[in-house]
Amino acid sequence: MKIYDVGMPAPNPRRVRIFLAEKGIEVDYEPISLLKGEHKAPEFKEKNSLGQVPVLELDDGTHISESISICRYFEALHPEPPLFGKTPLEVARIDMWNRRIEFAVMGPIGNVWRHADARTSKIVKQFRDFGEANRDTAFNAMRWLDRELAGHDFVAGANFSVADISALCTIDFGRFIGLEIPAECANLKSWHERVSARPSAAA
Amino acid sequence: MKIYDVGMPAPNPRRVRIFLAEKGIEVDYEPISLLKGEHKAPEFKEKNSLGQVPVLELDDGTHISESISICRYFEALHPEPPLFGKTPLEVARIDMWNRRIEFAVMGPIGNVWRHADARTSKIVKQFRDFGEANRDTAFNAMRWLDRELAGHDFVAGANFSVADISALCTIDFGRFIGLEIPAECANLKSWHERVSARPSAAA
Questions:
Q1: Residue B49 falls within a domain, yes or no?
Q2: Interface contact A95-B68, CB threshold 8 A
Q3: Looking at B77, B104, B122, which one is the last position of a domain?
Q4: B58-100: pLDDT as tens digits
Q5: Shortest CA gap A28–chain B (Å)
Q6: Can you tell me the ipTM of this complex?
């Protein structure tokens, strides 16, 4: 078993690394070079036809892509500690929060990266006005998350979950492209300190 | 228990209705008028601070939003027939396919709807060039899905799953906004006939 990975600062491979660190599971990583375009090469597209990392390769040659789907595979094999919830309500609430982070917060941050960052301008066709407009959407999403964090320690409630992992990788990736947490977002900042202090955050 | 819904052709509420029809579960629906802006009213935002439908309301007043998270709640309560998989590999593979449909296929279709459709031009600020460019991305995504469907009956493999529900609602919403399945996509067309023939598709 191994995981094709691209290392920091890509948010999706990092989600899997943090998840496995929280579970105490060790897996071999094989680096893929985005700069060399290895993720778009035919031999990699046989592993994931969308040409995206991470990809989990099982010993029988089966491939699973999508970071959260890889995490679900390990959650099913190693249920403790539960990071996707146990009761029907926990399962639904954590999934809801993970999706909210992905669509409402990572969505606009990803649009800024793809459409308004100099580093991607050579790789993809950019729609600069669209990308620039997403900066405000991203900051407003952080303000919304700040309000939602009032009164509880973690994104989905009292316990650390995969939604915190998605949110940490999202917020840190925002920083990497210049979208710092707005100064007034005290709840979001203290949450960020709390989850960044966990050993898994170094993964 | 009830579900706040907006009816056809919105793809997300329909995903929940089809899912419940496949499970044989009946839930009351309360209609929300998007035209009247009821989803953005303060009393609705107490149920879902993002102002989106559907929202599941439990008898104790708990709310769950995000269509797939609502489906996961019912899957946990009523595991049969399994629509999210049972073994770790099935769980991962169905989740991977559901996410691929959402990000790779619904993503560009949603961008066309929000940024290049006359019906949304009065409601949101559009980036028309970006929206128009997403038409080709959407068609290419359908061609990719057509290739992936070769040799199996359903999106995630041999069995009907929540990934087929997401794909059906996505493809039908594409049609609604003028993005027909490309003529050469024979696998995608026969899959579409197959899933549309299920009684649940009328939900």
A1: yes
A2: yes
A3: B77
A4: 999 999 999 999 999 999 999 999 999 999 999 999 999 999 9
A5: 19
A6: 0.97
